[in-house]
Amino acid sequence: MRLTALLSMAARVVVPKEYRYGTNRPWTEAAKRRNPPGKRRRKVFVEPLEPEDWTVLKGDMVEILAGKEKGKHGKVTQVFRRRNWVILEGLNTHFRFIGKTRDYRGTYIASEAPLLVRDVALIDPSDRKPTLVEWKYTEEGERVRVSTRTGRIIPKPVVERRDGIVPLQWKDGPKDTSPEDTLEKTYVPSLKTLEEEVMEKLGIQEDRRHRKSYWY
Known about the structure:
By secondary structure, the chain is α+β, with helices and mostly antiparallel strands. 14% of the residues lie in helices and 23% in strands. It has four helices and eleven strands, in the order H-H-E-E-E-E-E-E-E-E-E-E-E-H-H. Strands 6-3-2-1-7-8 form a six-stranded antiparallel β-sheet, with no helix packed on it. Strand 10 and strand 11 (153-154) form a beta hairpin. The protein starts with a helix and ends in a 14-residue tail after the last helix. The relative contact order is 0.09.
């Protein structure tokens, strides 16, 4: 699916006031099955967390602080800010039985369940131990995460796209459009019709004009 089509679907989606967010996008069929029209689901209370207070990002290494996987380290693969959830790669998994039909017995698949963001802590790269962090600004004005225990900056994770490209490390090739060419103004708007512009390009002189018409 093209990115423009995905963004257009996300822009058109309108959810009810009491919509219950999950791990599926609101416009997907899985989300529609869980939130059918007219069905009232039990309200879920989510701890309010301001966007500027959110310190865990996709690609971070964190340690689980509670639950059966307590003490394990994992990489954040998904973030759900509507529910204060994070999903770790290969951790907090449960098995689901799917695909059973008359001709097939079905199979079990492993599914990673979300964790509350308060149940994980960022790993300080300097000593590989969990730490609390806070947002600060450098002398250059860059907003960074700083460990409250060691005072060191925790860099933001480098996230790869699905095609394996890292946007921050991308270098333009000979066939890529340069930023200068992209910003170059090549179109000059005018009130002429397409036919008049073509005739002007080809040097065709035409003095005839359309007869005026009125709608009344």
